[in-house]
Amino acid sequence: MLASFVLQIFFWGPFGEPPFQGGMNCGPEQRFRFSVNIGSADDFVDFLKDHQVEVFFTDSAITEDGLIPLRGLDGKIVNMESLKEKITVETSKAILSCERIYSIDFGWTDFNESYPWNVWIRASETGHVSVRVCAGI
Question: What is the pLDDT of residue 103?
Answer without folding.
Answer: 92
